[in-house]
Each structure stands twice: as structure tokens, then as C-alpha cells.
Amino acid sequence: MNRPLVVIDDTTLRDGEQSAGVAFTLDERLAIATALDAMGVPELEIGIPAMGREEQEEIKAVAALGLRARLLVWCRMQTTDILACQGLGIGLVDLSIPVSDQQIQGKLGRDRHWVLATMTHCVGLARERGLAVCVGGEDASRADPDFLRQVVETAQRAGAERFRFADTLGIMEPFTVYDTLLRLRQGMDMDLEMHAHDDLGLATANTLAAIRAGATHVNTTVNGLGERAGNAPLEEVVAGLSRLHGIATGIDLKQFPHVSKLVERASGMILSPQKSVVGERVFSHEAGIHVDGLLKNPLNYQGIDPHDVGREHSLVLGKHSGRHGIRWVYANLGIDISPGEADHLQQHLRHFACRNKRVPGSEDLLSIYANAMAG
Asked: Nearest 10 degrees: CA dihedral of 33, 38, 39, 41?
């Protein structure tokens, strides 16, 4: 089987768990890994061996599931981290090292020569230990372009199979991402991976731009979990590739609701009802002009077919509801109302919405109807 045009490398179990306050139990890690594998995610980054024995045992437990997905772990570019990978049942490691002068000097107190020498040694050591290597360029978005080229060339000579371009601080925008990765891709024999953060709300856009520029792999997390504002959400990237570019990833979009809820419960990070693709209300419609258009033909107000991502449209009543929507919703409750009655109910619905700040449920609607007709 040919590899997809772009490989999704989901890092929910590594970078996603690095969200402040998030900690998965072993059972939760196993359930998330199994669910991601079942929906067809081809690669999973599942932990950090250097965290210690408990983390290593949990990595081994995930590896023992016998998943179809290729598994990798994250390490610093240092000998002790590489040695901690032995016997875990994984064959690929991301060796991360700062590549911007800001972090090389300000975080490590080193220089560019040290970075290149360390990469050569550590990639070689990992290869000797039977590990395939992805070199993670931390803070690559702030790296000097000429030095970044040296980093890629050094990683390639040392035996790495992939380079991860990390926009660690989420400071890039799609046009710069495209130009930067297009230049980096030229003359590069390794695979190229994009790791985007969402600090400016551009992680998905930057990920799609990277793919257009030639990225072969991209990092995602379920629900956009991750450091600070999070990473590129799996659901947005996969749906965007399918809907906007016609690119298949082999991932079953219909399983998004299940996986999203699973990660929401395990992380304790409650989703906004308006979270794209998986939010509770993103396929709900209230405004009269929209509801009228949907009832005539869903394509009038449908950018994404909700059935493609395991969802369906719902029409709700509220302050902005029109006559057609009111009659349709009440008809589904078994109540046939006239246009005049719908106009009368409209005022009651508006008062309910302003007073209660929520969508009325079935019992509310029946009560509103009874009160309106009684008046």
C-alpha cells in the first residue's frame, strides 16, 4: 500500500498531555491510543521515556497493544534520553534540540557548533541502538535560515529519516510557513514534518500551508490539546485536508465525536460548544434566515456535511428564530401550529432566551406553547 500524501502523527499522548493540568491515567492512555488507531491515525507519539520508570512502563503498555499505528517517543537530544528508550517496544524516536540562537544561547548556554556536533553524536547513537530518528528542531520558526539548512543537512548525514519543523511559540502565519518550508524542502531527501502551535489561532492554517509546501508529516492533537493555546487539532486538520484539498489521510472522520469526547473526559479540558467540527453546537442553527435556507436545501448553509464527521444538523429555537423554524420544531414535537401562532410564540421564545441564556429543551418548548396559547 502506498503511503498517504501526508501522514498524521498525532501527539495527544505526549504534547497533548503537556497541557497545564492534564494527566492521563494508564487506562485513559490505552483507551485513547486504541481509539486513535481504530480511526486510522497512522502515527502516535506516546510519551517521554526520560520522565522515569512509570512513564516507560506506560509506553510499553501502549506498545503491547499491537496497534497498526507506528509509535514514537519524544526525547531530548542527549545520551541518557536515548538509552531510556531501550526495551520499550518502539522503533522511532523524536530527538529534539533548540535551533534558534535565542534558545541555543538563552536556554542551553551553547553555540551553533555544539548543536551540530551533538546532533551528529546522538543521531548516530540512536541509529546504533536500532532506532529510526526524527530530528525535532525546537523553535525552528525563529532559527536563522542558513543555520536551519545546516541542521537539516547534518541530521540527514547522521542518518535521520525526518526533520520536525517546530513553530514552538506559535508565532508564524500561513504565507511565511509556506515560503519557509518550500525553501527547506528543496534539496532535502528526508521527510519533513510540521509541528504547529495555536497561540495566534493559526495552527490549522499553518499546518495546511506546510502540507502545500511539501511537508510529508504533520503533528496534531485531539481537540487541539497542548502547551499554552495547544496544537493543531486533529479534527480540523483532517477535515480541512478532505474538504478543502481533497486529500485523504486514511482517517475515519465519522469517529471524531467519540474520540473527542473520550479525550475531553480524560483531559478534563471542557470544549467550547462552538469548537470547530466537534463542538456541541457547531451544526446547530437558530437564526431565521439560516433555518429557512436549510429547510429548503441543506447546501444553502452547509460548508461541511455534518454526516461526514459523524454529526447531524439540529434546529433550535431562540431569540432569532423565524416562523419557519418555529413551525418545524413544534411539528417534530407533534404540534401543528399556524403561521399566526408561530408569530405569537416568537415573542415568548425571545423572552425565554434573554431570561435563561440557553436553548429551550422539549419540556421548555411545551411549557412556552401552553403559556402562549393560554394568554
From this structure: 50
Return the minimum-mean-pLDDT range out of 36-40, 162-166, 238-242, 345-349. 345-349
Residues 154-207 pLDDT 10s: 999 999 999 999 999 999 999 999 999 999 999 799 999 999 999 999 999 999
Beta strands 132-138; 92-98: pairing state: parallel
Q: What nine digits make up the cell of 56? A: 516507560
Q: Is the pTM of this model over 0.85?
A: yes
- Of 236, 254, 232, the C-alpha closest to 244 is 236
Burial status of residue 210 (CB atoms within 10 A of its CB: 0-12, 13-18, 19 or more): buried
For residues 282 and 276, what is the distance between their CA atoms, to the nearest angstrom? Answer: 6
